[in-house]
Every structure is written in structure tokens, then in C-alpha cells.
Design goal:
Blueprint: H1 3-14, H2 20-27, E1 32-34, E2 39-41, H3 44-50
């Protein structure tokens, strides 16, 4: 999910188009992308850069 998609999702919550719980379900695994055969860690580089 990129910034534009996150912004759109948050706007949908703000506009009461979707529930907060629904949005949380969408973003709870945000740092990872499930590929079926692998789970890609998109967040790992951000953590390493903070060390």
C-alpha cells in the first residue's frame, strides 16, 4: 500500500464509508505483502535505517 492508497482509506473512514475495524483489518499486515508462497517484509529496511 502506498501513501495515496492509505490516504484514500483514511478518507473513507472519515467519510463513514467504512468502519475503523475494517480499515484496521486492511492495514494490520501493512509491513508485509503475502504472496502465497512468501511473505515480503516491506518494513524491514525502515527499522534497520533507524538503528
Amino acid at each position: 500500500m502506498n501513501k495515496a492508497e492509505i490516504s484514500k482509506l483514511l478518507q473513507r473512514v472519515k467519510d463513514n464509508e467504512i468502519e475503523v475495524e475494517t480499515a484496521m483489518g486492511i492495514i494490520e499486515d501493512l509491513p508485509y505483502k503475502e504472496m502465497g508462497f512468501a511473505k515480503i517484509d516491506n518494513h524491514h529496511a525502515s527499522i534497520i535505517n533507524k538503528l
